[in-house]
Amino acid sequence: MSSETRTRPVKSLAIRLTSWYAGIITFSFLVMQMVSYFVIQSNLASRVDQMLYDEVAEDIGLFQAKGLATLMEDFREEVASVGEEKEFFRVLDAQGQVLGASDLSKWPNLAVRQDAVQRALTGKAELHTLKATTDHPNARVIYALLAPGLIIQIGYSRASDERLLENYRETYGIAVVAILLCSVAVGWLMAKRLLAGVENVTQTAARITHGDLNSRATIMGKGDEIDELAKTFNQMIERIQTLITGMKDITDDIAHDLRSPIMRMRGAAEMALTHAAPLDQQESVVGGIVEECDNLLSLINTMLEISETEAGVAQLTRENFDLAGGVRDIVELFTPASEDKGVSLNYQSAGSAIVRGDQSKIRRAIGHIVDNAVKYTAAGGSITVACSTDSDTAKVSIKDTGIGIAESDHSAIFSRFYRADRSRSEPGNGLGLSLSNAIIKAHGGAIGVQSVLGQGSTFTISLPKAAQS
Hints:
Low-confidence stretches: 1-7, 421-425
Radius of gyration: 50 Å
Structural class: alpha+beta
Order of helices and strands: HEEHEEEHHHHEHEEHEEHEE
Distance between the termini: 59 Å
Mean pLDDT: 81
Shape: rod-shaped
CATH class of the largest domain: Alpha Beta
Number of strands: 12
């Protein structure tokens, strides 16, 4: 049932595309054939009319040259050669009375139109169509002035032309049916071929829905919109899988790192409940629990901020600001703490460095790294914070002479809750560098580290410069 539900939309679209294709092709063919039919019909009619005009001109010349008797003899010979059912000739007087005619056995009861006779007497030829009856076929008839007081009437059967048009209509009908069937077949094949990529994405989505997160849509390699859809779909699934993995890691981290403070709070509370203690000791226990709760809230808020920033849903205030000035403020903020430890904290800048982003978050990211440098640099050491720019990048480097980081830890220090062995003696939760990295990446930048264990570290933050207005 689910398989039918999945494939029905694609099949429905294939049917609609096939119907549109077949309809357009068939309609276009119909229009083309109708135009051709009317053109042929018009040409045949024009040919007959021109033939009648030419015949009238020849007969007038023959009458003027050899007289009526010769003309009538010519009439009879011509009708005998082409057939009495195909053509007829008559000579009429001014009242429409028949003075002479060809063999009219195939045209019995042939009437004379007095209005046509009167018009012809004025010198203007009159053409009309003689409708078919049981006595005679459809015909085209001309009345023309042969001589003063004499009218020539010539009729030409349209039977052969009508048979030609009838055969054309029959062939035309068969061709329409054939075109319709062929266009349906070709349209279906084309629709299935075009929608194969869509069906591929649909089936991949169905597999993912059933838990196969490693499934990916096949790229057909045609470079068309369907391939772009498949690529975008795969990128989306990669992103979702990364977020799901990150959520799992966060869950594991929470389960691991929140267990200890919660157990400490529970233990302290149990001790307070099971042992009678002076009021000041009970207040101390309650104060410790409150402090642990504050630490937990801070930890959870930081983890949520990291997750939102990495997922791209954090609210960032975008504005142009001078990064060099912000770094100077950070150095001034940490100068008292460094002086208390006996660490020299220096600042260097080559001028302003305008970047675009959330100023408070970027300053927070840089502040975490400066704080770590002060924290892990022993008395007598030094820290140098420098700000510089190149053509399109602003850089901040924080170089210290602290404990350094082992090369094996370089790739892990930006992970949540990760703390190198030599840093575990200092207070902290291992989220500072992870948050800094998330913030800088959200602004299109990057953080790099160079460090030698026991000799110090250099962190380099790169951010794109703001576009010139």
